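Example 5.3 — S-adenosyl-L-methionine-dependent methyltransferase
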Amino acid sequence: MANTSPLLALASIISSGARTLDEAYTQRGFSFPSLNEPFQPGPLDNDKDLANTTRLIVAAAHQIIATVRLPLDTIQDYAPAVYISSSLGFVDQTNIADVLKDKPQGVHINDISAKVDVDAVKIARILRYLATRHVFREVTPNVFANNRVSSFLVKARPFDELKPGSLTKYNGAPAAAFVGHVADEVFTSAVHIPSHICDPKGYESPFNMAYKTKKAVWEWYEEPENEWRGRRFTASMKGAGDHFPPSIFTEGFDWKSLKEGSVVVDVGGSVGAVALILAKAFPHLKYVVEDLEPVALDAQKFWAIQAPELVSSGQVTVQAQDFFQPQVVKQASVYFMRFILHDWPDSANEKILTHLRAAAGPDTKLVVFDSIMPHACPDEAGPPPPPFPLLANLGLPIGGFLTMMDLQMLTLMNGQERTFTQFVELGARTGWKFEAVKPGILPAFVFLPA
Ligand SMILES: C[S@@+](CC[C@H](N)C(=O)[O-])C[C@H]1O[C@@H](n2cnc3c(N)ncnc32)[C@H](O)[C@@H]1O
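Solution (predicted structure tokens):
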């Protein structure tokens, strides 16, 4: 391999991967989906092997651009990436993807302007910036349509209900909710990352610095004027959850081994999306979904729609519980958490885990679903190396996502994605002994009382 040209090796990953995708679709009698058409669910969307091929192509394509392009051009592309967030934020705020919904022939900027009440020429400039980056399509001059990517910005509510500050605007539209969240409070806060690291001036996170508040982002969401942002965050978390196959949760721990009626607590569970998966797969267990009070109210509504029978039968309970206070459900069989520890710095996690440890019985297990941060270089403890010359963390599709999440955690809460060793050490400091980890796209750590 050492004698192979990295450029040719990258080109080969892309061309052989593209052939694999094309053949797989052709064999099924389909064409590979067009970027120009709005997204439609396809028969191979969830094919694991093809997902792996896609990741390799994306990693190689990103690396080949950095390899062949003049370095100055790469820097000049990256530094103004802020315009991606701000353009997406504008589109989200004005609901332009919703205006373009079901209009494959496209809509002229004057007609978009009449509908969303902002300057037509500025709409064109933003949409052209995005269309040049494959979000939206400029069909004819100044006429824009949704494409495969911008379809994900379309919300689920009728256009007339998408008013600013609406509490339901993002219901059922997790990708739009994520865009709105990132382009708003995350974007405003991320500007302060350098100051936070170099001179935090007593603020806990870039978010605290940006909004000049000592409140955690969750408490800030509880303020009446931010309630809609809190709802938006909850909608985006629901999407983050849907992204993962249920087997991660059903197979991450041996739930079948628990006795009939054993209590499983979803700590900081938001609406309880993971508990719902488990409750359907393991009806012999009882579930408690816990979160802060306003979120617990949302969770009650979620269960009333999704599975009212599980609540009325007592199999599922939804309750308010602050995880920085003593845990009210004592000696549960399992306390589990998804995407909680990465939200917080070590000092806060030590408090959360210590409260759970105090509530635990001798046979209680702690199950933590959280990502493991891989290094960008080869690492003996890491996963098997990808094909030469890809980065050990696979660059954009895996390392790119995890490092983005890491900075997202830093920005909002001074949280962090952790390495395997950091998880084990965190457990050890709070009375939890590491037992096992099930690797995968979202690893499951199992701990026992030490
Ligand atoms: C990143 S979300 C994860 C939600 C859920 N576990 C999931 O994976 O869908 C973090 C959750 O922690 C909750 N949270 C934040 N502070 C909390 C606290 N002090 N006590 C309980 N829950 C809290 C938030 O309301 C939010 O629902």
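Remark. The chain has 19 helices and ten strands.
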